[in-house]
Amino acid sequence: MTDLVLFVCAAAALILFVAFVAARLLRSRKAGMSIRMQIFIALASIVGAFALGLGVLVIDRIQARATRIAEESARAEAGSVASIVGNEMEAKNRTLSDVARDLSKAGGDLSIALLSPDGDEVFSRGVLPSAPGTVSVTAPIVASGRAVGSVRVVKPTIVVERMLADFAPTILILSVVLGAAAAAAAALIGRAIAKPIETLTDFAVRVSEGERRAAPPPAQGREVQQLSRALDSMRRELEGRPFVETFAADLSHELKNPVAAIRASAEVLADGALEEPVEAARFVARIQEATGRIEVLLGELLSLARIEARGVGEAGVVDLSEIASAVAKEAGIGGAEVSVVGSSALVKGDEAWLSRLVSNLVDNARTHGKSGEKIVIALEKKGEQAALVVRNQGTVSEHVRKRIFRRFVTTRPDRGGTGLGLAIVKAIAEAHGGNVDCVAFGPPEVSFRVRLPLA
Question: What is the CATH number of domain 226-310?
Fold first, then answer.
């Protein structure tokens, strides 16, 4: 009963294992085969071939050994019977037919046959040599110095077949254990190889998204270290002219609309709108609005360039809770409801820049969050870092989530958004040795978290 349970469990595990591998192979047809799967297939093929060869070898050797033992037993019995029959015929001057009659009257479980010198059966009892699962041996009968016939003994090998059947569950369990060992080894080896590649890929993606100061991840192994140094060298090379070209292209794109508005308004005024006070005032207001947008945009760009180029000027110990309270008070004057929760968190940095960081996050929540909803600034300490989280009710559009910290990315240009607020937040955080990320995109809540090293 125990063997049956083990056999069923092993068979079920083997079926699930094969189904898992098949599902991964089907998925790899679309996404490509991962390094982990390639290593697994190689190890599984080697281990599977080894397990199959081992099983076949064990079964073959057992079967050959058991068959040989059965043949040796049949040969010994045939020789003994032939010797007895020969002595009986020689001592009592009897024929083979007389001995056959005596054997037919006697009982016994031995499968035996007496054959004439021509090979005809004189007497036969028990299993035939043509029956499956048997071995047969023939020994000559010698009387008075001449061959007078032969004895054939048939031995069944059903014991061998039963023994092999008993070995089948053990061999299946052994195959499943070896397969599980191969899977575990493939997972460990695949992780050791694929993890550094995935980490370097993430580093390359962050650099491509504008995180120019991103440090390459620590690498182990000579080959991975060489690849890491090559990627970091490429990052430094890409910080020059291509970045300037991209920056100029983005700037010209953002300035296109307000400049076009100023040009169109000026043309209308030049064509006679100056003579109509109401129309002239409307177009002058459009010019002033576009000019104000250009001034805001250039001011933001100047701030971003200054923090990225010069970094933090004079750094001192700053309490983030005091900065958050000051920003919340100022936002309250403007009609926003902002609350600060959490304890004091001292960091080393520039108070003006850190105030700008918190102010930009609060302004972003006011611009893009639900109108009238409370904004929460939460402070906490985690290990050697201080975390500042700004939460508001709302949602971030799907199409901007992956590039939300890049320059000129905004979903509300109608509310005066320049798309530079979060880019400045990111630059300030990195200049202070920290980072910023969006931990919740909503709905219902949007959360931005800034992590800075404690002083």
Answer: 1.10.287.130
Please, is 150 exposed, middle or buried when counting C-beta atoms within 10 Å of its C-beta (0-12, 13-18, 19+)?
buried
Task: Dig out the tokens for 125 from the structure.
Answer: 């009892």
Is the bond preceding residue 129 a cis peptide, omega within 30 degrees? Answer: no
Q: In what helix (H) or strand (E) does residue 112 lie, and over which residues does it extend?
A: strand 111-115
129-165: pLDDT as tens digits: 777 778 888 999 888 888 889 989 888 776 655 666 6
Q: Whole-angstrom Cα distance, residue 370 to residue 201? A: 36
Q: Start-end ranges of CATH 3.30.565.10 in the chain? A: 313-455
Q: At what angle do helices 320-333 and 351-368 cross, to 10 degrees?
A: 40
In this predicted structure, the answer to whether residue 187 has a pLDDT above a threshold of 80 is no
Domain(s) labelled CATH 1.10.287.130 in the chain stretch across: 226-310
CATH architecture of the region 313-455: 2-Layer Sandwich (3.30)
* 22-36, 130-144, 330-344, 378-392 — most confident range: 378-392
What the block records as the tokens of 385 is: 């870092």
CB–CB of 126/133 below 8 Å? no
Is the pTM of the predicted complex or chain greater than 0.70?
no
Mapping DSSP to helix (H, G, I), strand (E, B) and coil, where does residue 94 land? coil
CB half-sphere exposure, 116, CA atoms < 13 A: 7
Q: What is the mean pLDDT of residues 369-397?
A: 90
